[in-house]
Amino acid sequence: MGxxxxxxxxLFGKAAEPASVETASAKTIGSxxxxxxxxxxxxxxSLKDEANATLAGTPAATPQPAPAGNVDVAAILDAAVKKxxxxxxxxxxxxxxxxxxxxxxxxQERKELADELGYTGDKNxxxxxxxxxxxxxxxxxADNGGKVPPELLT
Length: 154
Hints:
The protein is an all-alpha fold. It has helices at 3-12, 47-55, 73-84, 94-100, 107-117, 126-143.
């Protein structure tokens, strides 16, 4: 997986993950022993539903993450900075943004991200590359459905 994909995953969330299975605590019923655990299955598609969906050419209902267009990039990054505890200015610095997301912000990683995003400038001029990377990353996130503050897209 590339650096940009990792950033998107951290911001937009992973693909739908299977819901965790909760274990019911067993209850003793007098001398009858343990009551069987039961679950509300009303919202679960049946095998018949899955078969009909497959025959109709549509997949059976599965949990899906919120559409990327609903992901507020600024809110997520602001929360990540707060959680990190360091003074990070993700709105101006690609390094701070990557640190806020818990990523390696080394020059090598930024050069790899620059390659992924199509940077054609001198990668040894890290200041110019970093400025370009920040703008290009904000645009790429917006192009992929993220809600990015307009001032960061100019």
